[in-house]
């Protein structure tokens, strides 16, 4: 397999299993395959920070994908290199220089520079955000903010499941504002990045510089704010940052996988402030919207795919936007690799490969399988014992029911005999973090999903 296609496929799989914020922070445009020699795969990274983070947090996850694609036991080497994506911008402009005014070049370069400084992905715009009933309110409010920054809907709090477009939408706000005025002071980051920068500033005695960066903004965009819960110093710092920006009518936009009231271990004073603005949720897209999204994504990649194939994928993939994109990327990659023409049969193979691993037949099958895997009874998973031998398998069951069956938290609670669905929220959260940090948990999830295919 060609190296570009290999890494494109690995990224597609990673994107399906990571939050949009984490994917963009650590992988999108920041990594590439440098070489594949026998079973050694060298992965190039944008800088030493990305290299160290991937090696410590994502080594096993990347390796599992490469092992399967290359059909061998791979070893990974992470290195700092100049990526191809970083040299693309140095290519000659599409128009002859004589036909491009210095003003146009300067304006374009300034916008690109400001987007990079703000941490924004230029492809996340309102123009390519496909709107339907599941995201219409969120999109309308986000767009309205750009016309009246800091005056209405402040803060804006968007919540929804993984891969529904929250990251795209909040970055579209920043990109539109910079297109209007490149001098706007904007910062986008994940709550994890905010926390890491805070810790580093404390260690290096540069908290004043940290505060100046985040409190001297026109627009602050924070992704996955739920992850500051339980972190006292981060909550304290963010509370004062929030207050400072709000007091001077600067815009704050936050995303989470749940509404503020359901974020466990989030301080009440922060919940109160988050709930004081506009809260909008984004649901998984309905079938017509899924079809429109697929058509839009295919056109952006200059791929002419028959509408019957698009319709089939839209009907078969009922999950998040990320699931749709994953199926589309696999379809395009398979066609490029094999030289096959796009066809309904090829689409069925792609969807089958993906959905069989994601969609067990029902919740009872998941509960039974996890119980057998850990040599427990289903009653143990539905019980209330806090013994370690029951807690982790129970949380893994919650995670699979949520991620693979796309069940709601209330429905999972009912399936497992829990009165309070916040227990499910907490359990899913614990496994999400464990999947990123524990090779043992990653292995268990992989084995369980393989068994669910049978």
Automatic annotation (TrEMBL):
InterPro entries: AAA+_ATPase, Chromosome_initiator_DnaA, Chromosome_initiator_DnaA-like, Chromosome_initiator_DnaA_CS, DnaA_C, DnaA_dom, DnaA_N_dom, DnaA_N_sf
All residue ranges annotated as the AAA+ ATPase domain in the record: 152-284
Region: Domain III, AAA+ region, residue numbers: 119-335
Lineage top rank: taxon: Bacteria
Molecular function terms, GO-annotated: ATP binding; DNA replication origin binding; lipid binding
One Gene Ontology cellular component annotation held by this UniProt entry: cytoplasm
Compartmental location: Cytoplasm
Region (Domain IV, binds dsDNA): 336-454
Keyword flag ATP-binding: yes
ATP-binding as UniProt keyword: yes
Residues where ATP binds: 163, 165-167
Positions of the UniProt region annotated as Domain I, interacts with DnaA modulators: 1-87
Function comment: Plays an essential role in the initiation and regulation of chromosomal replication. ATP-DnaA binds to the origin of replication (oriC) to initiate formation of the DNA replication initiation complex once per cell cycle. Binds the DnaA box (a 9 base pair repeat at the origin) and separates the double-stranded (ds)DNA. Forms a right-handed helical filament on oriC DNA; dsDNA binds to the exterior of the filament while single-stranded (ss)DNA is stabiized in the filament's interior.
Similarity remark: Belongs to the DnaA family.
Stated name of the protein: Chromosomal replication initiator protein DnaA
Organism expressing this protein natively: Candidatus Woykebacteria bacterium RIFCSPHIGHO2_12_FULL_45_10
Name of the gene encoding the protein in the UniProt record: dnaA
């Amino acid at each position: 397999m060609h190296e570009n296609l290999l890494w494109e496929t690995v990224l597609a799989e990673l994107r399906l299993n990571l939050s949009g914020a984490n994917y963009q922070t650590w992988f999108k445009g920041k990594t590439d395959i440098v070489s594949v020699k026998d079973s050694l795969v060298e992965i190039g990274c944008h800088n030493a920070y990305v290299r160290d983070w991937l090696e410590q947090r994502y080594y096993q996850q990347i390796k599992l994908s490469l092992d399967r694609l290359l059909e061998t036991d791979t070893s990974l080497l992470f290195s700092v290199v100049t990526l191809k994506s970083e040299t693309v911008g140095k290519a000659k402009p599409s128009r002859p220089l004589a036909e491009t005014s210095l003003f146009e070049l300067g304006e374009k370069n300034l916008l690109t520079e400001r987007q990079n400084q703000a941490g924004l992905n230029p492809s996340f715009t309102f123009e390519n955000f496909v709107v339907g009933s599941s995201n219409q309110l969120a999109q309308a409010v986000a767009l309205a903010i750009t016309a009246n920054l800091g005056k209405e809907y402040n803060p804006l709090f968007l919540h929804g499941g993984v891969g529904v477009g929250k990251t795209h939408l909040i970055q579209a706000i920043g990109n539109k504002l910079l297109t209007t005025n490149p001098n706007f002071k904007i910062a986008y980051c994940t709550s994890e990045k905010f926390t890491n920068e805070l810790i580093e500033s404390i260690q290096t005695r540069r908290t004043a510089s940290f505060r100046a960066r985040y409190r001297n903004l026109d627009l602050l965009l924070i992704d996955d704010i739920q992850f500051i819960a339980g972190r006292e110093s981060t909550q304290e710092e963010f509370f004062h940052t929030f207050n400072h920006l709000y007091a001077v009518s600067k815009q704050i936009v936050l995303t989470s996988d749940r509404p503020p009231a359901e974020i466990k271990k989030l301080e009440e004073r922060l919940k109160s402030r988050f709930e004081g603005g506009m809260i909008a949720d984004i649901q998984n897209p309905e079938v017509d919207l899924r079809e429109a999204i697929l058509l839009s994504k295919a056109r952006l990649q200059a791929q002419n795919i028959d509408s019957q194939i698009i319709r089939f994928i839209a009907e078969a993939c009922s999950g998040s936007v990320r699931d749709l994109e994953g199926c589309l990327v696999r379809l395009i990659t398979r066609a490029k690799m094999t030289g096959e023409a796009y066809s309904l049969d090829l689409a069925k193979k792609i969807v089958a490969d993906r959905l069989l691993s994601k969609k067990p037949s029902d919740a009872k099958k998941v509960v039974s399988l996890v119980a057998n895997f850990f040599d427990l009874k289903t009653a143990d998973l539905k019980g209330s014992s806090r013994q370690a031998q029951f807690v982790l398998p129970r949380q893994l069951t919650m995670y699979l029911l949520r991620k693979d069956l796309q069940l709601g938290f209330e429905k999972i609670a009912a399936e497992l005999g829990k009165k309070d669905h916040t227990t499910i929220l907490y359990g899913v959260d614990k496994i999400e973090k464990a999947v990123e940090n524990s090779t043992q948990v990653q292995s268990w999830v992989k084995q369980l999903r393989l068994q669910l295919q049978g």
